[in-house]
Amino acid sequence: MLVAAVLLSTGAQAQWQWLDKDGRMVFSDRAPPPGVPDKQIVKRPGGSRAGVPPVNVDADQTVQPAAPTPAAAGTQSAASAPKASGVDKDLADKKKKVEQEEAAKRKAEEDKLAKVKADNCSRARDAKASYASGMRLARVNKQGEREIVDDVARATELQRIQAVIDSDCK
Fold this sequence. Notes:
Layout: H1 2-13, E1 16-19, E2 25-28, E3 41-43, E4 55-57, E5 63-65, H2 70-80, H3 86-132, E6 138-140, E7 146-148, H4 151-168
Antiparallel strand pairs: 1-2, 1-3, 4-5, 6-7
Helix pairs in contact: 3-4
């Protein structure tokens, strides 16, 4: 009987324990799947344990990781903190550079647009001053003939110029 008890206890020793992706404790006689990181393996066959905190079992038989001590919490958080690799840093640098280039392009376009609006505003104010002066004005029509601007055409042109001033002179 003693030999049978010893042989049965060695079979119980060949148990794997690990935390699955949902944080539940898994017990098996087979190794965990390849996707389980070593830090989540609690026990391996042969009695060796990994660096996972001890596990508590509630009255309803749910397995919960035990609360770490304050000293262990500091070392665990430092150990489990993601390490920045060179690839991630390079990717972040490239992303930052692209964002800066896009911001510079947007700034250049805004500056160009502001310059065009300022030029349009200046021209519109000059044209308004000419049309509002009451002096006799002439312009060239589509056939290339010179015609004198009458009062109706002057009023229409002043309205158009005022619309340009309202939109570009802010």
